[in-house]
Amino acid sequence: MMSVDRYLVTQQKAIVASWISFVLLIVSCNSAEQSNRQSGSNLVVSDAVEKNGPIVPGADQLERYLPLLEGKKVGLMGNQTSVVGPDKEHLVDVLLENGIDLKFAFAPEHGFRGNIERGEKVSNEVDEQTGLPLYSLYGKNEKADSIVASVDVMIFDLQDVGARFYTYITSMHRVMQLCVNNGKKLIVLDRPNPNGDQVDGPVRKDDRFKSNVSYHKIAMIHGLTVGELAKMINGEGWLDGGAQCDLEVVPVQNYDHSTPYELPVIPSPSLPNHLSVRLYMSLCLFEGTDISVGRGTDWPFQVVGYPDPVFGDFTFTPGTKPGMAAHVEQKGKLCYGIDLRNLDPQEHTFTLKYLIDFYQKAPFKDTFFARPDFFDKLAGTDELRKQIIAGLTEAEIRDSWKADLDAYKKLRNRYLLYPDDVN
C-alpha cells in the first residue's frame, strides 16, 4: 500500500541515495582522470552522470495530480507500463489506495496487462487484480463516448517508444478527442522517450497513408514525449474541427532528450529489453515484408532473417514463444540472417542499412515488399519503397526527406518541454 506520505519518504531516500552515488562517481572519475593523465591513456571518462538528480516520471509525482482528482470520477488510459515509484506499483493500485474514485480503464493494443499479441482483439473485461472495468480503445468502440461521459476527468499514462508506428500515441489522440467530445479534462502523466535523442525518417504528409501506425503528420522517429505530442496535437489543431482538449501535462523531472533512458517495464511483448526498443526504430519496417525480425524467439527485434542462406550465416528458428506466437513470419523455418544482439543500444540510431541490404540480397525482389500497402503506412509514404526498389543509397534517400524533416524539427521545437540538442 502506498500513501502519498510514504511515497514521498521513499522518493526522498531514493534522491539521497542517488546524490551519494553521484558524489562517489565524481570522486572515482577524478581519480581515473588523474591516473589517465599520468599514464598518458586516451581513455575518456563519460560525463553522462546525473546532474539534477534522478529522473522522476509524471506518474511518480503524486503531489502534482492527486489534488486534481479529489472528489472527481476518474477514468484511466493505461497498461502494464503505468507504474509508480521504485517498487513499480501499478497506477491503478496507487489511485485506489489513495481513495480516488476510479471508474474504469481503457486498454490500448496489447491489452491492460500487456499480454495481447500485435493485431489481436483487445476485448472488454474486468481487471482480475482490482475488479476494475476494462474497455478496449484499440479498434472501434462504439460506446467509448458514453464511457468517457460517465467521468469528470481522464488520465493518460502509457510508455511510448518514440516511433510514429507505435500505436499508443494513436490511442492518446483518441482519448483527447473523446475528452473534447464530452467536455472532460485530460491529465497526461509524461514519461521519457527512450529514443528521444533521435528525430529521423520520412514525415507523413499525405492522408492516403494515415492509419493507426501513421496517424500524425510527424517524423517516423518523432523525438517527442507523449506530453509534448499532446501539446502538438492541440497546438496544430489536429483534433476534429481544430478543437482544443482541456489538457494538463505533468512533466518528467530531471530529463532531457539526450538522457539515456531504459524502460522499467517492457512496453509490449516483442520489445523485451532496451536493445530491442532501440532497434525497433530501424527494424519495424520489415513488418511490411515476410522477413523475420525474431518474433517467436527470445530475441525479437534483435535478429533478422529469412529461409535462404543468401541473407547470412547466423541462423534462428521463429517459434511459438508465449505472447509472440501469432502472426510470426517464417514460423518453424530455419532463417538465415544477421545477429544484432551484441550491439550497444545507445550507439544504435535509426538506419535503413538493414532493410536495403536485405532487399539487395533478395532473389525475390518482385515480392520482397509482401504487404506494400502496410509498408507504405509504416513509412508514411510510398516514396521510400519506390526509392529502395530503384536502388537509391541510404544517403540519397535521406537527402530526399531532409527538407521535410528540417521543417518538422522547427515545428517540434515549439512544443518541447525538455532541453534538446537534436539538430
Structure, described:
Strand 2 (83-84) and strand 3 form a beta hairpin. The chain is globular. It is 32% helix and 13% strand. The protein has a seven-stranded mixed sheet with strand order 5-6-4-1-7-8-11, with helices on both faces. A three-stranded antiparallel sheet has the order 12-14-13, with no helix packed on it. The chain is of the alpha/beta class. The relative contact order is 0.11.
Condensed summary:
The protein contains eleven helices and 14 strands.
The biggest sheet amounts to:
7 strands, mixed
Number of strands: 14
Separation, N- and C-terminal Cα atoms:
45 Å
Helices and strands, in order, run as HHEEEHEEEHEHEEEHEHEEEHHHH
Low-confidence stretches: 6-11, 13-51, 114-123
The overall pLDDT average reads 87
How large is the share of residues in beta strands? Answer: 5-15%
> Tally the helices: what do you get?
11
Task: Please give the share of residues in helix.
Answer: 25-40%
* Overall radius of gyration: 22 Å
